[in-house]
Specification:
single chain; alpha+beta; OB fold (Dihydrolipoamide Acetyltransferase, E2P); binds adenosine-5'-diphosphate; binds magnesium ion
């Protein structure tokens, strides 16, 4: 198992990158601590697979270095890095049995056959493949084949890290939850450094202790699920995490007062310096109160989502979503107030600390 340092990483798929836009990874610096469970979360095209493939050695980065336990491995081939990688689509030997597929990575490393049997049985049980153990992979369903791929990633105890690239994409929705839970259990038992790539916030937040959010080839925030929810550093995180995402309202600043059109919101403090750039107030739909007092809103549609309702409204001509209890009343003349403890202020998409007293 290893601590993985990613230093000053940049990567362009073209030979002569002309501008920042040519970089799939613009600049990434990060430390994956030994034994950590990380999710790399971000929309399609933000560079997740590129970063994973650089860690495993499938791609050599244009700039920067990868260190395993302090040793530079940037120039080492994949085989020398001792990494297990699980891809989006199954990689299995069709003519081998399920058992032999799982035993392969161990036999390849000359692990004694008794130890192979012990380990393979354990993984087979974990994945619920007992009845398939002696069947050839050929003819199994996509779900089952992907379980074998997962198993091949998990079977070796001595790997530096296990990298998962959207491994549950082809898995049936009702199985996803169970497999994710099992991966987390494997992490708890064996303590591998695990990096799990996904574009799905639920997968990221349930699997990982630390979520690394990527956007346009950069890391925009690293944090626990709570931190990402409570204090998004970048408007992208506010919007991407949460359902619905954070409300972002254009604002101007006057001391500790944020002005939203003709309305005013008192902030808990003010930024250390008068901010430059485009200002936005950020407030999550969960922290907007709908009532008879505050700022007038007009209600659009109301969506039922289980025990909650999402109210879509307009405040000073801007879209705003409010989450309310399913049995809560919507007043005839609806107004909103914001929970001051959960107000955020952004300048050009980056969060400002509101530490300074009025
Ligand atoms: P993600 O996994 O987050 O969806 P990728 O790392 O696959 O993102 O891609 C990041 C960017 O690099 C995208 O703009 C993508 O089009 C580009 N890209 C990925 N692979 C290649 C490749 N082999 N050749 C050229 N461009 C690529
Ligand atoms: Mg990808």
């Amino acid at each position: 198992m290893a601590r993985i340092d990613v230093k000053g990483l940049r990567h362009a798929y073209t030979d002569r990158p002309a501008s920042e836009a040519d970089y799939a990874l613009r600049r990434v610096d990060h430390v994956f601590e030994d034994g950590g469970a990380y999710a790399l979360l971000g929309p399609s095209g933000c560079g997740k697979t590129t970063l994973l493939n650089i860690i495993s050695g499938l791609i050599r980065p244009s700039e920067g270095a990868i260190l395993f336990n302090g040793t530079d491995v940037t120039d080492l081939p994949t085989e020398a890095r001792n990494i297990a990688q699980v891809f989006q689509f199954p990689v299995v030997y069709d003519t081998m049995t399920v058992y032999d597929n799982l035993a392969f990575p161990l036999r390849n490393r000359r692990v004694p056959e008794e130890a192979v049997a012990r380990r393979v049985r354990e993984v087979i049980a974990m994945l619920g493949l007992e009845e398939r153990a002696n069947r050839r992979a050929q003819g199994l369903t996509g779900d089952e084949k992907q379980k074998i791929s997962l198993g091949r990633g998990l079977v070796r105890a001595d790997v530096n890290a296990i990298l998962f690239d959207e491994p549950l994409t082809v898995i049936d929705p009702h199985l996803k939850w169970a497999l994710r839970t099992q991966l987390k259990e494997m992490h708890r038992r064996f303590g591998h450094t695990m990096v799990y790539v996904t574009h799905d916030q639920t997968e990221a937040l349930t699997f990982a202790d630390t979520v690394v959010v990527m956007y346009e080839g950069e890391i925009v925030q690293i944090g626990t699920p709570e931190e990402l929810f409570e204090r998004p550093r970048h408007t992208f995180v506010g919007y991407f995490i949460g359902s619905p995402g954070m409300n972002l309202l254009p604002a101007t600043l006057d001391g500790t007062t944020a002005r939203l059109g003709s309305q005013a919101v008192e902030l808990p403090g003010r930024p250390a310096m008068q901010p430059a750039g485009r200002l936005q107030v950020g407030i999550r739909p969960e922290f907007v109160r709908l009532g008879r007092e505050g700022m007038p809103v007009s209600i659009g549609k109301v969506e039922d989502v289980g025990r909650k309702k999402i109210v879509r409204a307009k405040l000073e001509g801007e879209d705003i979503s409010v989450v309310i209890d399913e049995d809560a009343e919507i007043p005839a003349e609806p107004h909103v107030t914001f929970d001051p403890a959960h107000l955020n202020l952004y300048a050009d998409s980056w969060r400002l600390e509101l530490g300074a007293r009025p």
